[in-house]
């Protein structure tokens, strides 16, 4: 099942023999025009700068108790390295 996708009338989906499935322009599209909107992200991964501070699964940021002083209470998020690759980290939720 594919996620809901809203595609601009200025673009279309097509399977291309050399580059695979993609979104292609059917007219000239001005800069800043939204051409594709996806209700739920298809893929979401932390960039290299956030590998140590972000859960690779749910994107929760690592925190500690001290960072929640004078804020609405949210439990701290502790991240642990993936036992397989030792590169990405996961929170205790998953």
UniProtKB/TrEMBL annotation:
SUPFAM superfamilies documented for this protein: SET domain
InterPro entries in alphabetical order: SET_dom_sf
Domain of life of the native organism: Eukaryota
Name of this chain's protein: SET domain-containing protein
Highest classification ranks of the organism: Eukaryota, Fungi, Dikarya, Ascomycota, Pezizomycotina
